[in-house]
Specification:
Elements lengths: L2 E5 L6 H12 L9 H9 L19 E6 L1 H7 L1 H20 L6 E4 L5
Parallel strand pairs: 1-2, 2-3
Length: 112
């Protein structure tokens, strides 16, 4: 089961958010650097033939994003934090609506 550690300490704006996740998840060069593209890449995490991420979930696996520095990130970038939570949930909702299983989990400790 793939676990991808993502440090949020240097995420300060949308550009750094997309750079950090693209690096951590191996998004393609044509990644659109917006939340629609983020959702599209992670929706395909168990379809390596799509070429949307280098992190591949096997049959029955879930990709877990192990997020470091969440409390500080949420305080520093509340809009980005909310978008991360909502879009991670949307990836799973979208897949369920398509007849597929959820694929994405978030793991973090929110300690202020």
């Amino acid at each position: 089961m793939p676990i991808v550690r993502v440090s949020l300490d240097r995420v300060t704006d949308w550009d750094s958010f997309h750079t950090r996740f693209a690096e951590a998840l191996g998004f393609p060069d044509f990644y659109g650097r917006n939340m629609n593209a983020w959702v599209d890449c992670l929706t395909s995490a168990d379809h390596p033939e799509d070429g949307m991420t280098t992190v591949v979930a096997g049959e029955g696996d879930v990709v877990t994003l192990l997020l470091d520095g969440v409390a500080e990130f949420a305080s520093r970038c509340p809009e980005l934090y909310e978008a991360l939570i909502q879009n991670a949930a949307f990836v799973n909702w979208r897949r369920v609506k398509m007849g597929e299983r959820p694929i994405l989990a978030l793991a973090f400790h929110y300690d202020k």
